[in-house]
Amino acid sequence: MVKGKTGMKVILHIGAHRTGTTSFQAYIRKNSDFMRTRRIGFWGPMRTRKGLFAGIQPEPGVGPEAARRARGRIMLQMDKSERNGIKTLIVSEENMLGMMRRNLRNLSLYDDVGERMSRTAAAFDGRIDTVVLSVRELSHYWRSAAAFCVTRGHSMPDPDHMNRIANSPRTWRDVVSDVACAVPDAKLVVVPFERTSGRPDAMFLATTGLGGPRNAAEIWANRSPTLQELRGIIAERGEHQDVIGGPLNKWAPFDPAAAAALREAYLDDIHWLTAGGDGLATLTEDLGQRGAGQTLPHGPLTRGQGHDDQERRLAEPG
Questions:
Q1: Residue 285 above 60 pLDDT?
Q2: Which residues pair with 133 in a beta bridge?
Q3: Using one digit for the tens of pLDDT, what is the confidence trace for 259-277?
Q4: What distance in Å separates the CA atoms of residue 191 and residue 201, rounded to the nearest whole number?
């Protein structure tokens, strides 16, 4: 056992944003009896954002003493959970990874995640057993993140801004590498969003290795705004930018060449993970399939036969 770890298994579910994190958190809360009987504890944003994590990340005017106090709070709460018989603690908080608005402002994918996760690891005093990261096809991630930020009051990014994002060299491979370096003693599990889209029970399986209940398994929270909703928001603000539509009533912020480049970069990342990810992470894909319902089962994400067809089948929701 790694020094500092206890008998309680601590799993950090760190997002990314726009990969069903809110649905996953709601699913766990809806199944509290199931969690209790299996001695699984849960800390979500309703807890982490009410002071528990305050001070872990640097803020203006906040000194190192705040980080020490945060570590003390977390240690006390973990010890309490273990005394209460908790065997596995799931901590689900996508802001551990970073902030969407920073990504959009810096035209880069979680470029401060190494520092953030190093601070988080220190706050948990080496007790982290597993880190779970969800990744998503890059053009869909950026579209969804930008649209969500617009609904929260941020300005609509113009086409030039979005295409500059598409030219950024940073991909999920860089994020995975930074997280692995920041939390070297933890197992890093990477889950493609295309495998868990609209399936919080599948995300639970990827996170814990346990089959979860079907109760509340259809939760789908924080969906991206439709094209009409997005147009309504910017019109209400007096913005007159033309919002170009795409398939399935979705905003299409990237030109075809940029969208294709982002899809190709994502498939390269998945190929790298499938090949072992340089020993840094484990890719989880075999999460079972439900019968066809609102969301059709997804095909394989690895390269090879059917690769061109798969690009057209990558998940759209969110």
A1: yes
A2: 190
A3: 999 999 999 999 999 999 9
A4: 13
